[in-house]
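ugh ok fine here u go
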Amino acid sequence: MAAGGGGAARRCWRSGVGLARAVRGVCGTGRATAALRAEELAERLRKSEEQQREIPKDPTRRWLRELAAMSQQLQQVHPNVLAKILKQRTLYQNEEIVVIDKPYGLPVHGGPGIKNCIADVLPILAKMLENMKAEPLHLCHRLDKETTGVMVLARSKEAAEKIRLLFKTRQVEKIYWAIVLGDPDPVEGVVEIPIVEKEVQSHQSHYKMTLAPNYRLCPEDGRVVKARGKRHAERAVTRYRRLAAASACSLLELQPITGVKHQIRVHLAYGLGCPILGDHKYSHWSKLAPQKLPELTLRRLKLEQSKARHLPLHLHAHRLCLPLGQPLDFVCKLPLFFQKTLRKLELDIPKD
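structure:
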């Protein structure tokens, strides 16, 4: 914090010098004016930082501040502390597997700008769960950084390969819950549209997964015609059903039959026209911008549109059934921020 404040103070000081030079020819105060101006700007900076550190009194602003800080906090803790957090979130373990409740904002793999990830702390977590001579745990599948919920780790390479094969051959039943904008039509069904990665050409070029449908409508007469197949497109199938609807939003239960990158997010946003709440990446195609929320949703969340960028992705790996000898069924309760959003939007969780 001190380093950041010092850099900002130096920028303010340079700004003060520039202003002083402009004034010097008029009033002739020279260095005294520069010093005075720098002191004023430094004092203004100090007050600004104090205001930023203050806890907002408004509950909604406080809630958004907490949500925005979640991912940052997990990146700042020591790897031993992160491993301890994952240990506390262990749902089940036996001689072959360890099942954890993955927290929001924690990436599975490392990458540019990532200090902490699950893969890096698996050796530490294994020792905490078993003993100091324990072999590192192994990843069996992945969840997006912003996705919460059930995640399976293996105690050995052999167990990991066996479980990966179960995922690859679609023998693992995965159930997700998501809050989406709008209401899917029909309210229950299957989205079966291939997915491919494309570069989006805009003022800020970036890559996204998108749909690569096998058929399209002919613009001349509206006939359904076969589209040219995309060589790198992957088959993607997602089953969905609506559990509740209110406040211009819906709570959906989702079962991805295949496992393509960002499959659920792409099928909901581009296939059904119902992007996941907090999915700023897939709420627009041609740009990177905060998600635009309906007025009713903003009112229920007591939120201004300008603050919508702080909303996290509301996608949760709710249940996983693993046929490992006998079927093992794991259910993970919703994170607190997800539960709070459901209450604010008056979306009732089904009892069954």
